[in-house]
Amino acid sequence: MTVGEALARARHDAGLSTAEISLRTRIRQSIIDGIEHDDYSACGGDFYARGHIRAIAQVLRVDSVPLVEAYDAARRPGEWIVAASRSEPIMAARTPELGVPYEEPGPVTTDDDTQPITMGPRSDPVTTGEAPGMATADELPGRVTADELPGRVAADEPRQPVAIGGPPDPIMAADVSEPYWMSRRDRHRALWIALGATVLAAAGLGGLILAVGTSGHQAPNASGAGRRHAGGRSATQQAAASPSPSSPSPAGGRRARALIPASIAAFGPGGTGQGDSPQLARQALAGNAAQPWHSAWYTTARFGNLQSGTGLLLDMGRTVTITSARIALGHQRGADLALRIGNSPDLVGLPPVARANGAAGVVRLTAAPTRGRYVLVWFTRLPPDQAGTFQVFVYDITLRGYR
Fold it and tell me: For residue 222, is it within any domain?
């Protein structure tokens, strides 16, 4: 399977179109179509092609390393041919063969002697004698003798490296460079002192925490004692201290518990037909931070002035009473959201009952007991993402109440 086929299959498995991939990666749709058909001519080179492969793989949540390696393996034979042609040595126009004398023009003298000096093969050393047709060592133009070489070291002189900027500093052994007063026994003693101080600090902190915790439980006991001694109060005072029989009980005498919604859908200003990333809505209930539901990305925190908000609509299947909600978001702070409850799946029929501003991480919203069939988690401001745009991530929603 080629790189393009692997990316196309992963996109089909994720239920995404090339237009959605283009929105999330900011890569032109025509380039994405070309990559899925293993056509990288529009990428602008191998460097950009690898970057596009990594960006698309990140959106599809697949490992990009084997894809990039497969791309390199498919492109490497052509690169080897180019490298081989570039690495060929530049040959001289004419190279004399070994063992065959070649002619080299000598200097022009005042007598216009243009007769070339014939030298032997380059493998033969130049001798100091005068052989017929051979140039002596003294006759070679510009030749420098051994005595004229600057800075030449004679055979009887010591061969030592010349230091630049003075002699290097000696490297001292580890035990020599330590302070003379720090012996091994002193080091062990200092280590034990530090360990003892750490243990004492931890014990002191534990005692402080225990004292604070104990003092925090004294207030309810004192309050209970005060209630036990309040038997002598008048009936009017007791009625003022206790809830009125006509006021509704928060849970009607029942304990709130987790409620499981019947379905969930992405929700936009016009309803469920305009929600962001509708195919990922179920992931907002999965509790997996690595695979959350996310909105589309926008250029500003206020949705680029394109719409008023985005969210997730939970259908409880029947009318229930909601008392609180726990919503797990991404780590980027800056989300403004509202919990809206009602019996009609539209913004007008879902009045807000609780809000949170600048939220991140796990958000807990507590509301007065509110009855309704539909619960909307509605975002009116988005936090920034790592790409410099704005979008929100949700990977868990837990509602509590009673039926």
Answer: no
